[in-house]
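ok so for the tutorial part 2 we go from a plain amino acid sequence to predicted structure tokens. step 1 is just haveing the sequence, like this:
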Amino acid sequence: MLKFRQMGLAGLLVSALLMSPLGFAKGQAVKLSLSHIEKIKTTEESGDELYFSVTEYSSVERPRQITVPSFPTYWLSKHLSNVNDVVLWEKELADKESVMLVISLIERDAPPWNVDDLIGTVKLKISNDHGKLKRAWSIPNAAETKRLDDNKNEFQMTGDGGDYKLSLQVEQEKEVSVQKAR
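step 2 — the prediction. this is what the tokens look like for a chain of 182 residues:
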């Protein structure tokens, strides 16, 4: 008992934490941004109304779908020069968690007369392996999407008669401590 009195409250808390079945894993805050988008050709003569659909499939959570900008907002193709450094997705990945992101550029139309048009899609798998992020890009449909530059993650999307070039960036924001059971 004397040893516990000498350790003080801080020492007791540290001892209790070390002996408890809880530990701390290295989580990672990560985000995917649209660095730049450029219109080469629109799908419609009067211009396009564009948005991104990002679907996240996590190894530990339920899937979720995000639209950027959020519905019912969209970007007009004639104003894309003003669209830079937009966060498309962000999350704190737990240790050993991986996510598959399906990132699609879509041209919005007015239902029920016309459905939205898919211009292009890329996939990104991100894994957190003990605080180190691993990334792998893939293209599900090479007929409508090409990778232009491996180092800058530049893509050209040409589905439904449109033609757009874009750059995507993955950033590791910070390391976070995530408490988990051992």
